[in-house]
Model the fold of this input.
Amino acid sequence: MRKAAVCAAGLVALSLWAVTPGLADAGVGGMFVDVPTTHPAYKSIQELVKRGIIVVGAGGEFGGNSPLLRYDAAQWIHRTITNLESTIKVGTDLTPRLTSLETRVSGLDATLTRELQAIRAQLAQVQGGAEAARKAQTALVVGVTGVVLALAALALYLWF
Done:
């Protein structure tokens, strides 16, 4: 008799737990009863619940289709600000971080400047090579023209 009562109580508890998945884990897994795991916002909602910004209500529903009340928005914004403030301590000296960033940016600037100078030098070489190629082409044309004229003169001399 006692085993039957324990089994019945266990089945009732299990049934209640299965019917209300949002309450089963208090929303920790983002498991609202009205938000399917395939919904595009599921992971976002899950993360907001995990961070304590959105709190699971008594019914375990998110109410994604209901309008956002200003009261709810104020609570969500307040929780977000509180989370941010706890992450970044007020009065934290950011000078070392800024100095590190400035150093890295200066290093990148110097690297980019060197690379731009190298590219400009290569471009000047290419342009100088193009100028040399034009001069060589002109010299070839003048030389071939001279040879053709010399052959023509020789042919005229021998012919007449």
Q: What stands out?
A: The CA atoms of residues 140 and 146 lie 10 Å apart.
